[in-house]
Amino acid sequence: MNLTQIYSQLLLNIGFSANEIQQNWTDLEKAYSKKSRHYHNLTHLKEMIESFETHSNLLQNPNEILFSIFYHDFVYSASKKDNELKSAEYALAILPENVNLNKQLVFDAICATQQHQHNKIEDINWLIDFDLKILAKDWDNYKIYFEQIRKEYRIYPDFLYKPGRAKALKHFLENEFIFQTEEFRSLYEEKARINIEKEISILESKK
After folding, report:
1. Which of 95, 103, 129, 174 gives a 20 to 30 Å CA spacing to 73?
2. CATH assignment at residue 148
3. Into how many domains does the chain fold?
């Protein structure tokens, strides 16, 4: 998969000039390649886009969702609580005046990746599920994922990080479903719950 090509084609389709595309790709690549990003990086985007390509025929607004994937973690700092809002604002700020894109949908979609709650707009539910698919990986890959998350939060000592992470994970389990679409529930719900329960037990062990 060539991320640059997918990105360039998308921006061309929605009304960006070639010069704008090159500059914006440079900015995006730089943002997702920062040393502090162990998980929220270009690999995460690639995995989301793989899911997108598998299910894009089920989306009403595929361009908006693909654009949202590229920008949903553009701003990412482990110590901040407004990453999604800032990412959404940035995504809208770079759009040309006469762009062929539903700006409100992009804004709402990116913001929805903060809480991962069911949305009345089904396209946004798809985006949320693409973002959370990592939770249903086989255990070895899931373990790599949560170790990468721990590195991103390394400014916090264990006595703060572990209960905070466990609380966030329990929040997923308390919801009736982790995934928002029927397809992802049938494919991944059970596996994701097993992984999360296992990680919580590691976080809460006395070792």
Report:
1. 174
2. 1.10.1300.10
3. 1
